[in-house]
Amino acid sequence: MDIGHLYVKSDVYGFGVVLLEMLTGRHAIDEFRPVEEIELVKWARPYLNDKKKLKKIMDQRLENLYPRRGAWEAAKLVRKCLQYDRNNRPSMKEVLETLENINPIIQG
Fold it and tell me: Taking the CB of the first residue and of the last residue of the chain, which one, N or C, has fewer CB atoms within 10 A?
């Protein structure tokens, strides 16, 4: 097993969690939420697969001040980063390239 590779893919997963926190405005673990919502990743996964459901988990404080396509592209990136199998996760280089492609969408 290549330990360095394992750490890199773990970092990608961690980045996916941080990006999900940014999209939702929630913490990764929030013991003050209902039981089914305590673990952010577990709670959010079903919403990340459906464009119509995605809006339900977006941070309310953003008040629709974001393009839906940009939010959807970010959600797709989160899904890739949070793959159960680390071999299916993107490299950080791929993450950066995706973010660079999302930026013009968000900037308008």
Answer: N
